[in-house]
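Researcher: Next sequence.
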Amino acid sequence: MDMKSNDRASGPAACTDAWTPLPWFDPREMPITATDETLPAVRPERLSPEALRVRFARPPSWQPEQTDDRFRFDRAAPRDAAVLVPIVAHASGTTVLLTQRTLHLRHHSGQVAFPGGRVEAGDPSPVDAALREAREEVGLEPARVEVIGRLPEYLTGTGFRVTPVVGLVAPGFDPRPDPQEVAQVFEVPLAFLMDPRHHQRRSLRLAAIERSFFAMPYRPPGASDEHFIWGATAAMLRNLYRLLSA
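Model: Next structure:
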């Protein structure tokens, strides 16, 4: 989730009274406290493009599991942001397109994230903001995206109130990542992300309080390195799981 030029670190002068530098920790090193082996995976037939359209058009009664980070460092009024949850409709199965953020950004640097960022004054709606950011960050043209709905707003620890906009993406998209903001673009099978056996609960202690977060590490077949999906991105995917499994 990109916050554009104001998001780039530029030393102490970049910090204002409304923003507190985050304590450094490596989420990969935090202990796993639980997994959800007993919860069922979303059935494959619910992951098709048509089934997703129907679920968002006529959602059942359901409750999001997590709507804010368990740790907040920015106590100013939340700033509006939007992300695109791009579900690529491959013939072989749906996938979720994600990005790895570059290391020099001030907020969420190096993390796995959906394309997205602040809602700007010229954006008519969060949907328009999400589509604009996806075009700017990874070259995904709005014409390739069929917006099918939204997930509940999510409040990040860095003070952004994020609207997740869910869209189906026509296959054949060739990403063009902005090197200033995106280090890598990759896809994860939706079936993997909608299986709670891959949802880790990890914990850390900050300010003498035990806090928890979701993580969904994913290693592509044949790859030596894994993508560590965690924090706000993992929490929004967990809410997508709750909607699709309801």
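Model: The first strand starts at residue 32 and ends at 35. The first helix runs from residue 49 to 57.
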